[in-house]
Design goal:
Blueprint lengths: L2 H22 L4 E5 L5 E3 L4 E5 L6 H17 L13 H19 L3 H14 L15 H11 L9 H12 L3 H33 L4 H19 L11 H4 L5 H6 L8 H10 L11 E3 L6 H4 E2 L1 H21 L9 H35 L2 E8 L14 E6 L6 E8 L8 H17 L4 E7 L29 E7 L4 H19 L17 H19 L3 E8 L8 E5 L8 E5 L6 E5 L4 E4 L6 H13 L3 E9 L4 H8 L6 H10 L1 E4 L6 E6 H5 L12 H18 L1 H10 L1
Parallel strand pairs: 1-3, 4-14, 5-10, 8-9, 8-11, 11-16, 16-18
Antiparallel strand pairs: 2-3, 6-7, 9-10, 12-13, 14-15, 17-18
Length: 718
């Protein structure tokens, strides 16, 4: 199957899944799998639909409507314990009841049922061609009557009409069982009368017919046995109880070789299986694992205690080596203090801008209402003015905001990390001044790798059908607003030093457990399912801005899959890579599924879409740090292989652009060279007027670009 066809089927499946959810009036879980017939588990609320890829749209809608009918109206009862009736017979009555109720609940679905069954009839799915319908038992004719009765000339005797009315009038499942029992009894009696007539004819014919009769009887018995194990359209789709119906002891006692068989149901079920595509790989539904944050998060105190101890250990080693130099950061610390001093003016300006925007937004949402008190100033206008009452303006209360920042701590960030910290520090100083709580996490795979005695396997609940999180994955809480200002500045100096160690080779050595690593971005996003509600609760915030800064894409996550190995008695829980074309993210809490898409970067977008659905009060902002040579390829990646002219213009002008169709609420591409540009206005003593002008313009432009992240954040919060 080509990629276009596969994509079309994925879209079709998603449409039918949404149809099923709408009809069910609840977010049931809908799965499309390589099964022969539909199944609905009334306990887990999971509807499994076959891959009806060969079905027309009308038939597909009819089948979906039918299965949803069972989801809505068929109860979870062990009905066979008290009603030993063949499952096929119960299905005939229950199918009629739930389809009637669906037509009553959704008037428009009657057309789908009519068109779908009409198409199945025309294609002889009931195998009626050349058959004498009048010779069918009542169960078969009742099945045809309620499914395609408008297309056939069916007649019933007075006793039969009474049973048909019982089926037609069934409103509850209890009434279904009563009608099914009456139908079953009638068919049994009819079958017994037929058997007696045949026995009478056989005795008249004499002993010379015994061999032929025995042969026919054996054949009939085999046929009956086969039919007893077959199922109707709803054999496995109505409830778990109906799936196991044929295995019940009560039913076994009642079933005989001459038991009632609904041949039209067998034919329909057999033909419907021809619509199912059983070739190729089956759809896989994967869920977000339950994360144990205590084993993944490295606390702020733990991170910086380790850094401080490492500086002490390094100094000690230098002294013991009797080398003349010890580790000193005087110049690096001075650079930080200079940057802090220069940044305060910009931060203060942005605080004022934020307060103005916040006030303007608040007044824009203000509401004016009458007080019911007469305004004496307006009384003289009573002849032509109906509004004589005083008014009051109500300003809505602003929502409490917070910031969660995810920082890329991968090897490719080596030369831009310090410049990235400048942006981050401006953001943190701003948050401190306007009292916005924040947490900054850096994702890494080195914190645990370079430590001893750490349990790497207690990070999440490992089970089949959930994503695998790498054992060495960690999130370091490098900054938090809970830290006092003096201690926070010390921590900022620590990270400034480390970034300088990465950037410039010298005698300074970075702490080994903070070594740069890979890009476990997707693992970090999954952890946000637990981090965000924890952050909101601890800080009592309503709105959260979640900013993710990275300079690369992340790989797909594998998922856990049980396999039976020949040398082991118990299944082994292994891992398998996803096939984006056949894998879906399933969220049971929301009742939604998400197709991962066909391009590798869409995996992250899918995780983000699920996050946004779970946390509607969170804005997810992505910042992608780009080398100049990577800008156009990044554009093409998110623009279906094309370069957007407006984005190219923005890139040439500002060295930044905005992606509008990603999983983020806002996704900014930003030049790494822009981050590193110095905003200071410096010229030589003998500079010309033109050189001074160019230097001044450049400094203003750089300052403007360096405030982009903060500016976007301010706009969202205000």
């Amino acid at each position: 199957m080509g990629s276009y066809q596969t994509k079309h089927m994925a879209v079709q499946q998603e449409i039918k899944s949404q149809l099923a959810k709408l009809l069910a009036t609840e977010d049931i879980v809908v799965e499309h799998k390589q099964v022969e017939c539909a199944q609905f588990n009334v306990r887990t609320r999971v509807l499994i639909l076959p891959l009806w890829e060969k079905a027309s749209n009308a038939v597909y809608d009819m089948l979906v409507g039918h299965e949803v009918g069972h989801a809505l109206f068929t109860p979870d009862e062990d009905w066979w314990l008290e009603h030993p009736i063949p499952q096929q017979v119960v299905n005939v009555v229950e199918d009629a009841r739930i389809e009637k109720l669906m037509k009553r609940k959704y008037l428009g679905i009657a057309k789908s049922f009519y068109k779908g069954y009409n198409e199945l009839y025309e294609q002889d799915y009931f195998e009626l061609d050349g058959e004498d319908i009048t010779s069918f038992n009542l169960a078969d004719r009742a099945n045809l009557h309620f499914k395609i009765g408008s297309l056939l000339d069916l007649s019933f005797s007075t006793p039969e009409k009474e049973i048909i009315d019982l089926i037609s009038n069934a409103e509850t499942f209890t009434q279904t069982l009563s009608a099914a029992e009456a139908l079953y009894t009638f068919c049994q009696q009819e079958q017994e009368r037929q058997d007696k007539r045949e026995e009478g004819e056989e005795s008249i014919q004499g002993d010379w017919m015994d061999d032929i009769t025995d042969s026919q009887t054996t054949g009939d018995s085999d046929s009956d046995s086969t039919d007893d194990n077959s199922s109707s359209i709803s054999d496995t789709d109505s409830s778990p109880s109906m799936e196991d119906r044929s295995d019940s002891s009560a039913n076994a006692d009642r079933r005989t070789d001459s038991d009632v068989i609904v041949g039209t149901a067998d034919s329909l079920q057999s033909k419907l299986q021809d619509l199912v595509n059983t070739d190729g790989e089956e759809n896989v539904y994967i869920e977000i694992p339950k994360i144990n944050l205590d084993t993944i998060l490295v606390t702020n105190e733990e991170v910086h205690q380790y850094i401080d101890n490492d500086w002490v250990d390094q100094n000690k080693r230098w002294k013991e080596s009797e080398l003349p130099m010890t580790i000193r950061f005087d110049e690096i610390d001075d650079e930080f203090l200079t940057f802090k001093k220069d940044a305060q003016k910009e931060v203060s300006y942005l605080v004022k801008e934020f307060e103005c925007r916040k006030a303007a937004t608040s007044y824009a949402r203000a509401s004016t209402s009458r007080t019911g008190i007469l305004s004496t100033e307006k009384l003289h206008t009573y002849r032509y003015n109906e509004d004589l009452f005083k008014k009051v303006t109500t300003l809505p209360d602003g929502k409490n905001h917070g910031l969660v920042f995810i920082l890329d701590w991968s090897g490719s960030m080596q030369y831009v990390l310090q410049d990235t910290l400048k942006q981050l520090y401006n953001l943190m100083w701003f948050c401190k001044k306007v009292q916005i709580p924040f947490d900054v996490y850096a994702f890494t795979q080195e914190w645990k790798r370079r430590a001893e005695g750490i349990d790497l396997r207690d990070q999440y609940k490992r089970e089949e059908g959930v994503f695998k999180i790498e054992d060495d994955f960690s999130l370091m809480n490098i900054f938090t607003s809970k830290t006092r200002s003096k201690e926070l500045e010390k921590q900022m100096i620590n990270m400034w030093r480390i970034a300088q160690c990465f950037r410039v080779r010298s005698l300074h050595t970075y702490p080994q457990r903070l070594c740069l690593s890979g890009t476990p971005l997707n693992e970090s996003l999954i952890c946000l399912h637990d981090i965000l509600p924890k952050f909101q609760k601890e800080n009592n915030v309503e709105k959260v801005q979640c900013i993710v800064l990275t300079d690369g894409e992340a790989h797909h996550l594998p998922y856990h899959k049980e396999v039976q190995r020949s040398w082991e008695s118990e299944p082994f829980l292994g891992c398998r890579n996803i096939n984006p074309q056949k894998c879906f993210l399933r969220d049971r809490k929301l009742g939604k599924t998400y197709h991962f898409g066909y391009r590798w970067h869409q995996f992250t977008d899918t995780i983000l879409k699920n996050l946004k659905d779970n946390f509607p009060s969170v804005n997810f902002i992505g910042i992608r740090v780009l080398a100049n040579r990577d800008a156009k390829s990044f554009m093409r990646l998110h623009c279906n292989g094309w370069e957007d002219e407006d984005m190219i213009k923005d890139w040439k002008k500002t060295k930044s652009f905005t992606i509008k169709n990603s999983g983020y609420d806002a996704y900014f591409g930003m030049s790494s060279s822009t981050l590193s540009e110095d905003a200071d206005f410096e010229v030589e003593d003998d500079a010309t007027k033109a050189q001074i002008k160019r230097a001044f313009v450049k400094s203003l432009k750089t300052k403007k670009l360096n405030k982009k992240v903060l500016g976007e954040f301010i706009e969202l919060v205000a």
